[in-house]
Amino acid sequence: MDRLKVTPGMRVADIGAGLGYYAVRLARRLGPGATIYAEDIVPEYLQRLEERLKRDKIEGVTLILGTPGDPKLPAASVDLALLSHVYHEIESPYEFLYRLRPALGPGARVAIIDVDKPTKDHGTPPALLRCELAAVGYRQVDFSSLAPADGYLAVFVPPDRLPPVESITPCKQ
């Protein structure tokens, strides 16, 4: 979160929130009045996260049930979208990124944490990640290794305008 300069007042989406590892930490870091969206496509995860938030008296987290191709976040509601070890699970990354764009407010960033492994091994090679995001108009603005932990952090900014759907060319894996 330090690398991403997460500060109070930011509106953050934890996409693929699961049981809330980042959502809970974001709520604690951003404090009262925080705007955090914990999005997942698995209803059971969101139910368990809701129970955790109530039990731990954590406020400011809105649960969103997305679909594999659409995070279903409100329009212009996010300053930072965080996808931690989930990008490689997205069935249709082009559709997902296309549908994510309207939720991103002015100056928003998309931060992806993953490992440099083939997608079949639960990772995303950085070159593939860059290619897929570029195909939908996103531009990489930062990349750093997370050593000594496994993985990397790649940060992108969305396009001002999305390209026509028919112009999106799938990347080779």
Structure in a nutshell:
This protein is of the alpha/beta class and 173 residues long.
Please give the alpha-carbon distance between the first and last residues: 30 Å
Q: What's the CATH C level?
A: Alpha Beta
Q: Could you tell me the number of beta strands?
A: 7
Question: What is Rg?
Answer: 15 Å
Structural domains: how many: 1
How would the blueprint of this fold be written?
Elements: E1 11-15, H1 21-30, E2 35-40, H2 43-55, E3 61-65, E4 78-84, H3 93-100, E5 104-114, H4 126-135, E6 139-145, E7 152-157
Parallel strand pairs: 1-2, 1-4, 2-3, 4-5
Antiparallel strand pairs: 5-7, 6-7
Description:
- The protein is α/β, with parallel strands linked by helices and about 170 residues long.
- The chain has a single domain (about 10-165), classed as Rossmann fold.
- About 25% of the residues lie in helices and about 25% in strands.
- The protein contains 4 helices and 7 strands.
- It has helices at about 20-30, 45-55, 95-100, 125-135, and strands at about 10-15, 35-40, 60-65, 80-85, 105-115, 140-145, 150-155.
- β1 (about 10-15), α1 (about 20-30) and β2 (about 35-40) form a beta-alpha-beta unit.
- The radius of gyration is 15 Å and the shape is globular.
